[in-house]
């Protein structure tokens, strides 16, 4: 199979990282590690969850895409994508919808897109509180234009993205299995 990147996108708190970890564990996919200037959460480790950068070090990388989200810089480097592809031909990356659009435009047929959603956006607030973000950071994120933008599938991804509702984890796993079969990644 040719090299592919599964882009997992949707609003913050929807379970994008959980979906990515499941795909990585279930089908032994490498993850593209992205860069950010935000402060690490208590359980996050540099080089495993993100490359945690300063503003200066962030600007020294070569990015396929980068955005400012809730006041912090995020980006995926070309080198990070190549490192992931050296580990497996199918890799995953978690991006906001703007990043997903960029990947779709720049990498064309190498990109498979999953848009993750939930039925009730109040669930997102609850999930943010559970994962340990500082209440001030949660509020800032929930009021950001990026968060509001990511609550709906952008027109540029309509017909391109596979939509998965993550209200029920067991059903989400079943939908991911179907996605993998439809994409020809598994039989």
From TrEMBL:
<dbReference type="InterPro" id="IPR027417">
    <property type="entry name" value="P-loop_NTPase"/>
</dbReference>
<comment type="similarity">
    <text>Belongs to the guanylate kinase family.</text>
</comment>
<dbReference type="GO" id="GO:0004385">
    <property type="term" value="F:GMP kinase activity"/>
</dbReference>
<feature type="domain" description="Guanylate kinase-like">
    <location>
        <begin position="3"/>
        <end position="181"/>
    </location>
</feature>
<dbReference type="InterPro" id="IPR008144">
    <property type="entry name" value="Guanylate_kin-like_dom"/>
</dbReference>
<dbReference type="InterPro" id="IPR008145">
    <property type="entry name" value="GK/Ca_channel_bsu"/>
</dbReference>
<dbReference type="GO" id="GO:0005829">
    <property type="term" value="C:cytosol"/>
</dbReference>
<dbReference type="Pfam" id="PF00625">
    <property type="entry name" value="Guanylate_kin"/>
</dbReference>
<keyword id="KW-0418">Kinase</keyword>
<comment type="function">
    <text>Essential for recycling GMP and indirectly, cGMP.</text>
</comment>
<protein>
    <submittedName>
        <fullName>Guanylate kinase</fullName>
    </submittedName>
</protein>
<keyword id="KW-0808">Transferase</keyword>
């Amino acid at each position: 199979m040719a090299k592919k990147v599964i882009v997992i996108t949707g609003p913050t708190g929807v379970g994008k990282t959980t979906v990515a970890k499941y795909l990585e564990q279930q089908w032994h996919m490498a993850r593209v590690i992205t860069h950010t200037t935000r402060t690490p959460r208590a359980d996050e480790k540099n080089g495993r969850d993100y490359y945690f950068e300063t503003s200066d070090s962030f600007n020294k990388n070569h990015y396929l895409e980068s955005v400012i989200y809730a006041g912090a810089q995020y980006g995926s480097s070309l080198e990070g994508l190549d490192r992931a592809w050296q580990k497996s031909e199918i890799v995953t990356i978690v991006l906001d919808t703007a990043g997903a659009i960029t990947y779709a435009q720049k990498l064309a047929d190498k990109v498979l897109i999953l848009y993750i959603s939930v039925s009730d956006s109040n669930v997102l607030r609850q999930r943010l509180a559970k994962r340990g973000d500082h209440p001030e950071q949660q509020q800032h994120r929930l009021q950001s234009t990026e968060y509001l933008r990511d609550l709906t599938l952008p027109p540029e991804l309509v017909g391109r993205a596979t939509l998965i509702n993550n209200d029920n984890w067991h059903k989400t796993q079943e939908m991911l299995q179907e996605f993998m079969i439809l994409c020809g990644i598994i039989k």
